């Protein structure tokens, strides 16, 4: 009897358990289970939007987008365009994309990610119990991402990169218009962003990050160097604006100045034993005379000199839209005390006034400074994009100076004119910019026909002179090497120029690391870019 009783209890408990499970599934979770069943019958397939691409100023494509992204000029444009890769956890939220999607990791690919990615579509499909698709229920087509037309001129960019590569030195070339639109932003060495897209190249990616030459480092916007004699533009403007000198102010070139036990020489005296005698501002810029700028820097004082350097954009971020920009450094007595534990001396002012010492600038900052002289006193934010487009664009015509991205500096036009005149003389006979003396380009050829056969025959063989304004620079590094048993002091080569000098169209800045003198090494590269620009017009 006890056995039968226990069986009844066990059956009752089993029934109670089954009833409770049925109640939970049917009543409590019924709605959720029903929805899950519906989902098992339908599938939502995401239709990924095609990513937009990049075009140059003339409307030429720089990227091809099919299953993978293909950079057509990989090393030439790597530091501008950047590359894409699979989104990490932070980027999934930042850009609003699904796991496994590729997003811009660097360069314009990243800063223009939201424009380029487009809007995904979707397709709802009904499935059989076996999982086979029965029919499409609904579909929303994806919207292709917008494309980006750059200010960069492909031909000028490619030429600039080749010039850097062939020079044998690391460095940068920047070219732009008077309102800050960049025609060239080249840095060498560089890298191939296609390795991030193509299978079987993981070894190349690993090597890229440990390469001692730092090919991913954008020297145009991140490299920091003493500006050398290009900074004499700032020293000149500071003294003129503070009314400490005028066009008639003169300094006697003594070859060197002694301050206590220290000696500060002029390059012409140190290298050749020469002196420039009486030197005014125009001649000082023409000859890059250090003695003049030592004395003028002393008159201005380091506080005002530093303030004017910042006014012209040195030691400040430009906020260019690609990543990795360096701010640079304009030293002051407070900075030296806090960072070096030393007082500021007159010798510090001397070397700062000629662009040496602790001054640190990027090539982009020198480009902006020179542009502000060329356009008569406007500091312009550098721009890389002219338009967002939905189809292949036409060549974009730059219309000339516009103030949209520029702010007017508190400078007098007569002072700008004096500095311009000195820079003009620097690229004439007797100046330091000898590779640009008598800069000429070929005239555009005329068609030879019955109307102008004689004119065409003569003009095709002629050259047209284009006067330019420039400033050279040779930056001391404090490093040296032994070559053929002789110690050679390493210097960075600078050259910054605008042309034509009366109505500027293009500004170019060249920096070559450890290359030597600016006039010997950097200026010839700028000359080739100028030649290409004017002969292509």
Can you give me a brief rundown of this structure?
This protein is α+β, with helices and mostly antiparallel strands and 537 residues long.
Name the CATH architecture of the largest domain.
3-Layer(aba) Sandwich
CATH superfamily grouping of the largest domain:
DD-peptidase/beta-lactamase superfamily
Please state roughly what percent of the residues sit in beta strands, choosing from under 5%, 5-15%, 15-25%, 25-35%, 35-45% or over 45%.
15-25%
* SSE-based structural type: alpha+beta
Q: What is the CATH fold-level name of the largest domain? A: Beta-lactamase
State the helix count.
19
Please tell me the total number of domains: 2
Helix content: 25-40%
Number of strands: 23
> What is the CATH domain class of the largest domain?
Alpha Beta
Shape verdict: elongated
Largest beta sheet, briefly? 5 strands, antiparallel
Mean pLDDT: 90
Strand order of the largest sheet: 11-10-23-22-21
- N- and C-termini, Cα separation: 112 Å
Question: Could you characterize what this model shows?
Answer:
There is one protein chain. With about 525 residues, the chain is of the alpha+beta class. The protein folds into two domains: about 45-150, Penicillin-binding protein 2a (Domain 2) (Alpha-Beta Complex), CATH 3.90.1310.10; about 155-385 and about 410-535, 3-Layer(aba) Sandwich (Beta-lactamase), CATH 3.40.710.10. The protein is about 35% helix and about 20% strand. Strands 11-10-23-22-21 form a five-stranded antiparallel beta sheet, with helices on both faces. It has a three-stranded antiparallel beta sheet with strand order 1-7-8. Strands 2-9-17 form a three-stranded mixed beta sheet, with no helix packed on it. The protein is elongated and about 120 Å long. The model is unreliable at about 450-460 (pLDDT under 50).
